[in-house]
Amino acid sequence: MPPPQAIAIAKQKGLDLVEISPTAVPPVCRIMDFGKYQYQEQKRTREAKKHQRVIEVKEIKFRPKVDEHDYQFKKKHIERFLGEGDKVKATIFFRGREMAHPDIGQRILERLMNDLAEVATPETHPRMEGNQMHVILSQRTGRKTAAKPRMQDAPEPAATTEE
Question: What is 143-161 written as a DSSP string?
Answer without folding.
Answer: ---SHHHHHHTSPPPPPP-
